[in-house]
Amino acid sequence: MIKGSFPTEEFKKLRTPFYYYDMELLASTLEKIRTEAGKSPEYIVHYAIKANFNEEILRAVSATGLGADCISGGEIEAALKGGFKPETIVYSGVGKSDAEIELGLEKGIGRFNVESEAELEVIDEIAGALGKKARISFRVNPDIGAHGRANLTTGTIENKFGIDMEQLDKVVDRSLSMKNVEFLGLHFHIGTQLTDMSDFVILCNRINDLQQRFLKKGISIADINVGGGLGIEYLHPNHLPQADFESYFNVFRTHLKTIPGQKVHFELGRSVVAPCGSLISRVLYVKEGISRKFAIIDGSMTELIRPALYHAYHRIENISSDGDEETYDVVGPVCESTDIFARRISLDKCRRGDFIAIRSAGAYCESMASRYNCRPLPGSFFGKKKK
Ligand code: LLP
User: How distant is the alpha carbon of residue 190 from its chain centre?
Assistant: First the structure.
């Protein structure tokens, strides 16, 4: 989305801040995923609902035939409302409540990704009481410290996620003796915003070893779920508006040794939706401090918390101005000193009322919005797809 191509005339009719979604970019990203994953017919891609559960986005994604990856009962309901078929839903989470397990069974979801022996027992019991059989995979903690920020890795033994590899055989054996669960697969997820493909190579090698271990015991695994994690380019969203899906799927084609008939599942979130979204705010005030100049905008950490929470970088542009560049701290109105989007960045000269776009905000932004300070949740506006 280059600067001049935002529909700023239409923006003038809307209350800021709001999310703008470029549906053309989303459509071409989904098409790219279909093409690259489609080179291997056994590859099945699920969309991680947590990245963005705006109903319009869910409808666009589900229409292309992707499955859903959910983390809560609320996400299962959102996925179904957004047009995903129940049998395409995979459901992870270390703390599934009884009500959420019942919901998954009643709706007939495709898979529970079980994260502990204690959870296995509860699922077996609830499925028995409902007269159902739960299709399960075990989420394995592969103990891989993937690149990226420490608070965003999920696959090391200090993390709460998944079952440790040494304890896996026991849990699998246990499930094979249970009446109300059907053991079908192994699930992994090593982290997020990973752009170094070597992390996924390590994952493949780990899965190959584990698979051999099970084959030697005469247990064959119907499917492998490799999770999500593919990163995007936050620095230059216009240069690289799509994640490197080609290299990503090729890594698995080259390194993952599947057995005949086995399916491989993927759970992509960020790479599907992050590039197509921008938070659009207006400049409220330009405040000239003694040591710095602040562009105070009407968007805040309640609409987009990633910079405050993870010091995450999002490119910021003044899409109303082509004045000379000046240096600003871009801040929101919320009563927290972490309500800062960027410090000392160059923006085209800001005046009251200018539109500010915070880019690459389609994933983990609207879905993480809060109502702190009694702020309303942001609205959304969808840029049209080409006919
Ligand atoms: N599968 C599982 C089990 C996950 O936990 C996640 C993300 C995904 C798939 C999707 O991963 P992705 O393809 O989006 O990397 N709020 C953080 C991101 C948290 C990701 C949590 N799990 C952020 O704003 O960066």
Answer: 13
